[in-house]
C-alpha cells in the first residue's frame, strides 16, 4: 500500500496526477482550496478504480494553517488507512499571474512568493517527519525558469527558487533515502493563469510552432510524468529538474 499527498489535486495537473497514481495502485490524499465539489468528484473517480482517497481543504497561501493541516493528515491516515505514514508528496498547488516587470506590484510579488515558494518549503517541513523512509517528493517548477516570456518575471523567479530548494532538500533528506525532484512543465491547456494557453488560439499556435513535438501540452502529458517520478521505479532519480514541455525552445 502506497499513499500520496497531492496539493491542488482537484483539477488541472494535480487531478491528472492523482488519477494516474491511482491507476498505478497508489491511494491519494488530495487538497483543494475552495471547490470541494470538484475535489469530491476526483475522490469518487479514484474510488471507482478500487483505490482509497480523501480530500482535505488547504489554502497554501496561509502558512499558519499548516500545523492544523498536518494534524488533519495524521488523523485521516489513522482513520482511513490505519497508519501514521505516507509515501509520496506532490507540491502542486499554485496560481498563475501575468504582469510585466514595470507593472508587478509588491503584493503580487509577495503573493506569488508565498504560494509558490514559501508554502512548498514549509509544508514539506511539516509533512516530512511522518513520510516513510525511502519516500519521494516532487516539486513543480516551470519551463519559464529556463526560457523567458515577457510578463512572467515574478512567477518564473519563484519557480527558479523552487529548483534550487529541491536540490537542497535532496541532499538533506538523502540520509532517509527520500528522493526529491522537480518537474518543469511547458505550456499546458488548462484554466491555469486564466486559461490563456487554452483559450488564446494565436498564443496556442505560436507556442506549438516553437515546440519540437508540434503542439501544446495537455494535463495528462504532465500527469503521466508526475506519477512516474513519484513511483518506486524512479527511486534512483534524485535532485533532478525534469522538463516536460514537448521540446520547446530546444
Structure described in brief:
The protein is of the alpha/beta class and 250 residues long.
Describe the model.
The chain has 250 residues and is an alpha/beta fold. It has one domain (2-244): NAD(P)-binding Rossmann-like Domain (Rossmann fold). 43% of the residues lie in helices and 18% in strands. The chain contains eight helices and seven strands, in the order E-H-E-H-E-H-E-H-E-H-E-H-H-H-E. It has a seven-stranded parallel beta sheet with strand order 3-2-1-4-5-6-7, with helices on both faces. Helix 4 (106-127) runs parallel beside helix 5 (153-173). The model has no long low-confidence stretch (mean pLDDT 94).
Provide the descriptors you would attach to this structure in a database record.
alpha/beta, Rossmann fold, seven-stranded parallel β-sheet, globular
CATH architecture: 3-Layer(aba) Sandwich
What percent strand? 15-25%
Instruction: List the quaternary state of the chains.
Output: single chain
- What number of structural domains do the residues give? 1
| CATH homology group | NAD(P)-binding Rossmann-like Domain
In helices, the fraction of residues equals: 40-55%
Q: Assign the structural class, choosing from mainly alpha, mainly beta, alpha/beta, alpha+beta, or little secondary structure.
A: alpha/beta
Radius of gyration: 17 Å
Strand order of the largest sheet: 3-2-1-4-5-6-7
Number of strands: 7
**Could you say what the CATH topology is called?**
Rossmann fold
Characterize the biggest β-sheet: 7 strands, parallel
Amino acid at each position: 500500500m502506497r499513499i500520496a499527498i497531492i496539493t491542488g489535486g482537484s483539477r488541472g495537473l494535480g487531478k491528472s496526477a492523482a488519477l494516474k497514481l491511482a491507476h498505478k495502485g497508489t491511494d491519494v490524499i488530495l487538497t483543494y482550496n475552495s471547490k470541494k465539489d470538484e475535489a469530491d468528484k476526483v475522490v469518487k473517480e479514484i474510488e471507482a478504480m478500487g483505490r482509497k482517497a480523501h480530500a482535505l481543504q488547504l489554502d497554501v497561501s496561509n502558512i499558519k494553517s499548516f500545523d492544523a493541516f498536518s494534524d488533519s493528515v495524521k488523523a485521516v491516515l489513522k482513520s482511513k488507512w490505519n497508519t501514521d505514514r505516507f509515501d509520496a508528496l506532490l507540491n502542486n498547488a499554485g496560481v498563475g499571474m501575468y504582469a510585466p516587470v514595470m507593472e508587478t506590484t509588491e503584493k503580487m510579488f509577495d503573493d506569488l512568493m508565498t504560494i509558490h515558494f514559501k508554502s512548498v518549503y514549509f509544508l514539506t517541513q511539516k509533512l516530512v517527519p511522518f513520510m516513510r523512509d525511502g519516500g519521494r517528493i516532487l516539486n513543480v517548477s516551470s519551463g519559464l525558469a529556463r526560457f523567458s516570456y515577457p510578463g512572467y518575471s515574478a512567477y518564473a523567479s519563484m519557480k527558479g527558487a523552487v529548483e534550487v530548494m529541491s536540490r537542497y532538500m535532496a541532499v538533506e533528506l538523502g540520509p532517509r533515502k527520500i528522493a526529491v525532484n522537480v518537474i518543469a512543465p511547458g505550456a499546458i491547456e488548462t484554466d491555469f493563469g486564466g486559461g490563456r494557453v487554452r483559450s488564446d488560439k494565436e498564443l496556442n499556435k505560436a507556442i506549438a510552432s516553437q515546440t519540437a513535438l508540434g503542439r501544446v501540452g495537455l494535463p495528462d502529458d504532465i500527469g503521466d510524468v508526475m506519477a512516474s517520478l513519484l513511483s518506486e521505479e524512479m527511486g534512483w532519480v534524485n535532485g533532478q529538474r525534469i522538463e516536460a514541455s514537448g521540446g520547446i525552445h530546444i
